[in-house]
What does this fold into?
Amino acid sequence: MCEAGDQAGPGNRESAGPAFSALLEDSAEDLYEHAPCGYLSTLLDGTIAKINATLLGWLGRERAEVVGRLRFADLLTVGGRIYHETHFAPLLRMQGELGGVAFELTTADGTRLPVLVTSTVKTGTDGQAQLIRTTIFDARDRRAYEQELLRAREAAERERDRVQRLARTLQQTLLPPALPEVPGLEVAAYYHPASADEVGGDFYDLFPLTGGRWGFFLGDVSGKGAAAAVVTSLARYTLRAAAASEPDPVTVLDRLNTVLHHEYRGADPRYCTVVHGHIERRDDGAAVTLATGGHPPALLIRADGSSRFLSAPGGQLVGAFPRARFTAVDVLLEPGDTLLLYSDGLTEARVHGRVRYSEERLRTDLAGLAPATASTVIEAVTGLLAGFGDGVEDDTALLALSIPGGDRA
It folds into this structure.
């Protein structure tokens, strides 16, 4: 084995066989003519002075009809000629070389051949330009690859548009199409999706009850996507059905907790945070009872500019435990007062990249609105969300109730 290897070494080329000898005898001219790329040389005015057999084969032309008769630009498509005269040729004269430019050549039968062109200017000993040497690479495989990528991208964009339309449609089914008109109250709401591709888990509603009362709620389901949408739908309709028969908001949350814990326990637990209440208009304002299940506290903005959070301590997540504890708080809304319900997508947004927004900052930012109305509060908060930009990482639901009237303090 060692002797055979030695015989094939540099000192024994003659014994290596006819294949090795043929490689040694390969001429430079033959290498030029049959290179795996096209070569041509042109005069400074673009007239073709020399062209190899590879490029002639691609073009389907004879040497006699090309050399001395055509310019390089004559081989290009109409658009390619314009680009060559206005961009390629001037840059080549300025820089002396230009590489990797995409063109299309026109073959003898009229088909288009995508190529990549690299040109250099050859100069003499006196530094004067003499001719232009050009190397041409077949770019058909690359063009096919690029077109396939483009088709894949267009297909992905169409699929994304379809997913976004589906997400918008599904989201709309989980929110009331419009808030009803409530006698003696002004109401406003807003929903801010953090992503156009996924259905969020935030929800709200306002609906009539018996005896002149109105029920309302705002909540946030864990997770996103279709699975969260199913839970959102169940929570929303359970709350409405329970509120129609139970006058106590705490009992309504108990009902929802029982339903969620029964449906979603084990390997895929689901839960939500909810603030639910009812409001009844009176001559001196409106009586409100709020029950909270692990949700951020509602913000009460008084007509005189003061504000406070309506905390109901101890309210637990809805659906997380078989027996959860919920608490309620009563408050009287007077003329000029506004009650704001919101989800934590607002207070947990990032401000200036890192710092989390907070409930206290929300109270401070809305302090100058007194006497506030439902619409002015929602408008102010939507302005805050717009200012946060990409800092809003979660969906945000807003619902505001106000009593008309009241003077600015």
